[in-house]
Amino acid sequence: MRTHTSQAADRPAAAVIGDDGLDALIRALTEAGRRVLAPTEHAGAITIGDINGLADLPRGRGDVQAPGRYRLTETEDAGWFAHGPTAEGWKRFLYPPEECVWRAEAKGASWREEPTTTDDADSADTLALLGVRACDLAAVAVLDRVLGPEGAADPRYRARRERAVIVAVDCARPGGTCFCASMGTGPGAGDRYDLRLTPLADDPGSRFLVRAGSAAGADLLARLPARPADDAALAAAEATLNAAGQAMGRAMPADAEARLKRNLEHPRWNETAERCLTCGNCTSVCPTCFCSEVEDRSSLDGRRAERWRLWDSCFSVRFSYLHGGSVRESGAARYRQWITHKLAWWHDQFGTSGCVGCGRCITWCPVGIDITEEVAALPATAAAVPA
Questions:
Q1: How many whole angstroms separate alpha carbon 353 and alpha carbon 344?
Q2: At what angle are helices 19-31 and 215-222 packed, to 10 degrees?
Q3: Do 281 and 207 form a contact (C-beta atoms < 8 A)?
């Protein structure tokens, strides 16, 4: 991964930019030949899409998020990044939902392997991710641990990740289902960013405190019209984060891991299953779920064969299929698998939680199941289940 530093030696610790600086940043990324991805408004939601300039960003657009509910609103300050977490995370650009991982074609009596579009770093997209919230930045760190050099070292993920430039934007307005503060993943960005923008409380959404987190970020910052940050700007940035932390719509119990491990046979699982549709929406919008399946495809003439990797969900009956049937046939077993893996067993596997508190699984659940409510409903002092 790219080496990140707190600041570059030849740059001030922080600077302040306005609309002209944000526009210059987008132009600098575009002129460098990067595909710039950022929050955009589409089909009644703030999603992630390609942008070419400042005008492509939604300005003055906020959102109302609640269990099973989402709608866009106008904000009073008419600034940039005035919304909560985007409807989708950034995972699909680094770890696509569908990807060809192997291809071969018949040549006479033999077969010859053909390269795929992501077989090496030189052919990977050069991405610029602009507007990554703290929770989503934490999700990237989780994926790095699972799929990057810290984990299984998936070559396709690693190629995209190492070439990507990440511009984080600290959260000024958490959504109604956000709980990143209780997960220690926000509202301020941690590390692994190239540039970090913090909206200033005295002019929200129009002026930003900017800090570089890598040499690439410092080079970008040097090209922007900016002024050194004074004490007032630093205080305004701190006020933004303090206000956001106090405005969280939810909180995860601090002992979530212990509660889940102690209550594997609790009747709450069956109660939740009566509402759960096992649709897999929560795993689709989760920025850290990485489960996949492999599908082999061939041409009708039998002269071409491909192997594709597809996202999968533990809510699918066939996800746990073994010879003779599925291990987890009931909805209760599948919901328990998802939430306990995310918040409990993930610690055992990767040394961290698999949840970053973005709240998407709550917002986009058709029946409004709240992951924080489900954990809180389990008793903290239940007897441990014997091994």
A1: 7
A2: 120
A3: no
Distant-in-sequence, close-in-space partners of 2: CB < 8 Å, separation ≥ 6: 162, 194, 214, 216
d(CA 294, CA 99): 10
Q: In the predicted model, what is the mean pLDDT of residues 190-217?
A: 90
Q: Is the entire prediction scored with pTM above 0.85?
A: yes
Residue type (1 letter), 324: G
Which of 77 and 21 is assigned the larger pLDDT? 21
Distance CA 217, CA 192 (A): 11
3-state secondary structure the chain: CCCECCCCCCCCCCEEECHHHHHHHHHHHHHCCCEEEEEEEECCEEEEEECCCHHHCCECEEEEEECCEEEEEECCCCCECCCCCCCCCCHHHHCCCEEEEEEEEEECCEEEEECCCCCCHHHCCCEEEEEECHHHHHHHHHHHHHHCCCCCCCHHHHHHHHHCEEEEECCCCCCCCCCHHHHCCCCCCCCCCCEEEEECCCCCCCCEEEEECEHHHHHHHHCCCCEECCHHHHHHHHHHHHHHHHCCCCCCCCCHHHHHHHCCCCCHHHHHHCCCCCCCHHHHHCCCCCCEEEEEEECCCCCEEEEEEEECCCCCHHHHEECCEECCCCHHHHHHHHHHHHHHHHHHHHCCCCCCCCCHHHHCCCCCCCHHHHHHCCCCCCCCCCC
For residue 65, the number of C-alpha atoms closer than 13 Å in the C-beta half-sphere is: 28
CA atoms of 192 and 157, how far apart (whole Å): 16
Closest CA to 137 of 182, 97, 196, 215: 196
Burial of 326 (0-12, 13-18, 19+ CB in 10 A): middle
Structure tokens at 80: 């940039």
- If you search the block for the tokens 């950034």, which residue do you land on? 90
* Residue that is written with structure tokens 């040549």 in the block: 107
- Pick from 141, 42, 46: which is nearest to 85 by CA? 46
CA distance 189 to 350: 21
Indicate the pLDDT class of residue 6, thresholds 50, 70 and 90.
very low
For the cut 70, the answer to whether the pLDDT of residue 123 exceeds it is no
